[in-house]
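Notes to self after the call with IL:
- keep both proteins in one doc
- input above output, always
- annotate only the second one for now

Protein 1:
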Amino acid sequence: MKQLLTIIQIIAALYFLFSPQPVYGQGNDDLLVESPDISAFPVVSVRVKPQTISAFGSEAWSADQVTVIENGQKRSLVSLEQHITGINFSVAINGSRELDLRDAAGVSPYQKLAGTLSDWAQDRRSKNQDAWSIFTDEGSIILNSSDPITWANHLNSYQPDFRLMQSTLTSLEQAIRNAQDRVVPFGVDHVVLFITTAPFSEQIVEINNLAEAAHSAGVRVNVWMVDDPFYLTHARGLSLVNLVERTGGRFFHYFEGAELPNPEVYVENQGVFYTLKYESGIRESGTFPLAVNVELAEGEVYGQSQPFYLDLQPPKPILIDPPASLTPQRNADLNDKLVAEPSSDKYTVEIMIVFPDGQVREIVASRLFINGELEDEQRNAPFETLTWNIGLIEESGIYTIQVLVEDELGLSDQTIITPVEVIIQQPAPLTELSVVQTGWTIILIIFAAALILFLVWLIYRFWQGNGGNQVRSFLSGVKTKSSEISVIDPESDQIIQASLLPLGLYDPLVADGVVQITRKKVKLGNDPRKADLVIDQPGLSGLQASIQINHGQFWISDLGSENGTWLNGSLVGTKPVKVKPGDLIHFGATGYRFTLIDPTSPPVPAVSTYESIL
């Protein structure tokens, strides 16, 4: 019976030693997919890292193996790049008497294992982000060192009396906690090698708990068990097998004469991640899922990121200092007829383009519309200037300007409709006068001069006579009262200092939409609790801007509004900027023309009449 048990133990040991497939665990996703970087949208960048041994494959990925699935649709890769970072490698030593059972040459199992690890570490080409640690039941010997040679020296110098030590899980717990707490760059892997004997039965639950903690932290635990092969068929040894299965590690059973594994197999393909870029097909704001699928020779691996949010808005064009009126020139010939060819007068319409979503993209077209009809189109840079040929206009009137811009995604937006008055002035024609016409012109001039002299003589005679005395007597008894002129708001009885006219309105006394400035300092916005003057228009903040009079001049400043205050197309800050009559003011996308009310010549003055003192 004893011999049969020994044969079973040897067979179990040989199975774990020569099994062709490593033991590793699989999570829900084989790939760790980060949330994408959309700063260069529509090109999206995402970093992907293998999480399981099967996800690494035997060779580096190629672009034809990778598929990006965005919002349920496959997207083509723009580029794929592999990065090799580093590893956090820790050895956890659970000391006990089995580690010091020496062979015929007097060499202990620990000395053989430590020597193999030391030789490997000194020969390994370390990466910049590698970190090396050693944990024992007494605590850490070296922690997160960047030098593998120093680490190897500490491992060789650790020579405790293993025969006096009692098996615990302290070293493994410390190694896993260090990996959990240590913040590393994306792509750096945590690898733990646990050198131990078979645990006690009462330690099995704790080992299972540590396996779950390591799995959650992405720590790969490998086990070198130095103990009787009997435990490979017992719950005590199988708990260590479960540990490596749960964390994707490898298991090795040491016995006298066993060939020690190369530690490089525990870190090969570790510390690797990929950056892939693809062309997004999203054309609206929202939250979207993203997944990555890789076809490897070993099979298909998959992973998905957290759904990402994309704020996608069309580019916003803004007119820069549009004119209130334009006057094209006309020429006439000597026969009082307009020249057959129209005037070449052209007006340049300037805009600035902003991206409200912060995603700056290429503009592919800008279009100028006059009265809703296409006037000019730009399909090459610069897109900020368009031309209006006002020389073709034949009639005076109000014409509307609107500019539309379109970006590379096909998203478009347009400026507000801005009215411009076009005034056509016909120059006085030049004519040739005949000799007869010249004679009659001279006669008429002489006659008019004689008539004027005669009227002047009559007025002089009247003034010198009794008529002049009567007029002077009447005027001497009249007391005049100087007129008092003011422009008064009929609703509030306040003196109007200035007005903000909505674009397209030219009568400052028409109250509909006109903002009257009646104080020397006033705050504007759409919140009655904050603003002195409430402007109920979209795009304004609760407290938008301030207008004040200082030394006879008007000044405007922004009060930290969300969409900004613009003066003639330039962004106004918190520092006051001078405002002149006729200037164009935008509160966000709402436009006004600044107008002064002249108290000496108002549109509708209130004038008191003369009163006689009699």
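Protein 2 (the one to annotate):
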Amino acid sequence: MKRSLSILAVFVLIAAGWSCQRETPDVRIIPEPAQMTVEPAMVKFPARKVIYTSSKDSSLLAAASYLGKKLNYTSIENGGTNPGHCIYLEVARLESANPEAYTLKTSGQGVVIRGNSARGVFYGIQTLLQLLPPEVYGDTGLVSNKGIRIPQVNITDEPRYPWRGMHLDVSRHFFPVEFIKKYIDVLAMHKMNTFHWHLTDDQGWRIEIKKYPKLTETGSVRKEADGSTYGGFYTQEQIKEVVAYAASRFIDVMPEIEMPGHAVAALTAYPELSCTGGPFEVRTEWGVSDDVFCAGKEATFAFVEDILKEVVALFPYKYMHIGGDECPKVRWSKCPDCQKLMKTVGLKDEMQLQSYFIRRIEKFLIANNRSLVGWDEILEGGLAPEATVMSWRGVAGGIDAARQGHDVIMSPNSHCYFDHYQGDARFEPKAWGGYLTLEKVYSLEPTPAELNPEEAKHVLGAQANIWTEYITSEKQVEYMALPRMSALAEVGWTPKSLRDYEKFLHRLVRQYQRFDAMQLNYRVPTPVTTAGSYVFTDSLVVDFHNPLENAEILYTTDGSDPQVAGKVYSTPLVLKESVLIKALTRMKSGRTSVLVEIHADKQEFRPGIRLAVTKVPGVDFDLYDGLFKSVLEMDNKKPVSRGVMTSLSLPDPVPAKPFGLIMRGYLKIADPGIYRFYLNSDDGSTLSFGERMVIDHDGLHGATEKSAEIALGKGWHGFELRYFDAGGGKSLVVQWSGKGIEKQQIPAENLASMSTQVMIGK
């Protein structure tokens, strides 16, 4: 009776605190809920601080404890049924069968969150937190409830996909436990449920294995170019600590132990498990090594299985990632042990040997109640019977695996590699290469249209990856992840029909405030224009779009730093002469974006020429063998072949080895005008007209696009297009737009071979 009176007293005090006031709420939730009704009213929080749960279930109490710390609530009560006028958390059967579904209702009667599971309740809590002031995300949580009001909402929500993941590579650069926890907190606020922890690679072994101590004694340390050493690893106790922390935020941790390739750190410690016997050193260079685990030695499989036994004991999640990517077969092709095994078990090539390796590991994992996940290279030579494929080289591998009846996680490098640049490489932190904007991430559709409904069921969801070859600090990880993680979170959670990029940007403004409260180093969006360069013949109007509310654009037109001498942008700029505009965004907090440069070039129309014959198709080409890092390296080299191509594209067939290509020809312009050209290439490319370089897209990089304009007069114009492929992806797409021309590939009738034409005048 005494306890009942105490609870009743608390109830009376709480009831006195809850109320509603008419007002138009400003609700900005990421990811956008599946169904939400917002009433024109605000709910005032109570002065007394109690959270009630429907049961003493440990998972539900963990969710309640998480919320209590954020709100600075003093107690959690197991109230059984909802006493009203409180925050009430309940696991209950909802209309949706989705185990992660939840409902959230706020009113003058209190806050009620129900979920099909404690995990669903936790996601409802994440939504509730986004209804509160951003300060709730600070180290001390919500400091005071005095005057705090939240929107009155009714939300019914569930994720679109069951796999919503983020990856972090700690092999190339190591990050301490406290940062890993902070990273997990960011995943939690985005309702992500999988942390992919990349623990081993050529450049470092980061997990303690008690049976093989040299893996961390030797394999976790590398020599740097300046003579210093770099290293670090997690003890098994630290691993357990991280896994438990993630579990308290309803996040599963999937370890990645690389095999059979990316194994130099392990082979440095145990060289006898290689094909050559070593010796080796932990790699200091990035990229791929020919030295891999020897697939022909039984000792290799005993070693790997011993490691996986310890890993399985540390990670309760059912999925285990074994890599399986980028495994050169050079050593296997010359290894007597590998060749003997291939002959013994009837394998026709080294691709099948890789499949043999993966299948043996999968059999071991299944025996230990785990499921194998690998990058899409595990398709090569035949897919292991129950493997899940993580498709990173585009979506083709995922499509192939789904059609074979295998589960798929979409992680295409075109949309999900957060180690790629977000803007102009001159002003952004050093990155691997490529170019991946926030909008491109948001545009990802994890389920390819090529799959039928049954095949589509195998698409578990999406994941983004942060490889850390050039990411050396915690702040840089945050910068590369945010706000792109917010975009990916919405891709994985929100119904496709509700996704709207402009509305997402509007909601993202509040997300930045939450990031500020968490002291995260997110990327501030740069000022937006339609292009990074313009050409004009008379005058030009340049209009900036401010990407943020309550922020300003600073700019200069004399090439100076806008942070020092910039003017505040208010109206479009009218230009009469060539200028270099520099601009940045400055938030109210003082945080600024990186620079953007806009080249405005006043030109006269470049005169065209007349040709004697205009219907000889194509352009001349010179093809070069070799590994180039710049298109300029083809100068003074002899081509291995030459001829005429019918279009501006890769040669047919495309060379298997790295190569260079120079194309020369004439382009027909029917009407004088300003024309924009687009080069999308992997790797470098350039386009020039005579002495004028129009697009410089040179260097090593992934498939990205650059564009620029030039003023061209009527007639034929000589041009030169250069391209090189240094391995990996091979792509070259040339397009144009201009007077009466929508963006498209250049038609064959507008091209003429330089070697077969005779100029007859201007």
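Annotation: The longest strand covers residues 659-669. The chain is about 25% helix and 30% strand.
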